[in-house]
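Question (not urgent): is this output format expected?
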Amino acid sequence: MSSERSTPASGSSGDGGRDPRGARSVAEGRAAPTAAVLRTKLRLQDLEIAGRTVLVRADLNVPIENGAVTDDTRIMGTVPTLRYLQRAGARVVVMSHRGRPGGERNAELSLQPIATVLADRLDTHVEFVPDCVGPRVKTAVHDVEPGRVLLLENLRFHAGETANDGDFAAALADLADAYVNDAFGASHREHASIARVPLTVAEAAAGDLLHREVNMLSRVLVQPQPPFALVLGGAKVSDKVAIIGNLLPLIDRMLIGGAMANAFLAAQGREMGASLAPKEAIAQASEVLASAEVADVEVVLPEDLVVAPSIGQPDRAHVVLQVPPDEMALDLGPETRGRFAAAVSGARTVVWNGPMGVFETSEFAEGTRSMAESIAALAPGAFTVIGGGDTAAAAAKFSISNHVSHVSTGGGASLDLLSGRILPGISALTDREMYGGDVG
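Got this back:
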């Protein structure tokens, strides 16, 4: 085991300027910093892996109900990397987190049910060990045959994972000869298995899923085809400020729905009743609106809204133009759905992150359904990207995942990448030039 290598600090691409409308040359020079860093790092195919033990950081943080996986998107995403390692004769050891157990064992967040699904998708037996460090794990790893797969228990059952603890990272690194990061959805985290283990092993490379995610998402940062529409939803304005700031010089229009639209409407003087609209969010929304006006970006906000006294009272849902004092906005109204559909119609580039309403409840799902169908209708002439998390879940629910260019497996990671930040999980990988690789 080698000592930790140094790694550059995560950075930003800077704000840049906006050319006059129609020139668009700013897009040609727009940085995609994470993609640039990734090109300098080892990738899976650079490794000599036959007979060696390869520790794969995957993102198997999938929903499980009654012991069954209900969405295998993230599992399927990492299958190509695992198959490559199997066929090359590696001893494959897979690690992941699931949920937020707070450093304690929680049977409901065990990865054991995932072993069965992973085995089915790989068409091979997958061994499971009920821990991720310790003597029992070392014995299980030692017994893995070339071409076979071992799945470790939830990393977050140990507090050292989220604390980015050096001893915990060393114990994980001691299991393997090489490391592969295929967990794009967790690569924005400064956690031990993401940011520290790769600095400790001799060789740390990027998996196929990581490459695919970075390359697809970075396309919207480099010469996006106009018109470019940014569609944002979800709850918090603060989560989206950075992506708005980085994409504002590139986009033509911005559509805002979901709970975050409450703050923008309140910033324009609309009364939002009992809707979620904190003062700090309203202030942030005001700043975004001012910046968009300066940048000559059209901002499309809801007019009519579906409201109810609470999420738990969908039977009292109705459409309004003015939100009553004792009710809250929970979805887009029919007029707004039509306006939003028209606003994305004809776009050549679309990024969508965040649902338009509480789509898990049918009475509040039509705004998100309409947006999903409007974006899917742009295929194949547009480049369309859907952020991970709830937006990816909505895409799956409304059966449009196969009708867009890319559905990301990472919510926070995709936001950070599109915000111009360099992801810690990529910075920590081994530089190719250390091994004589071509970094061009």
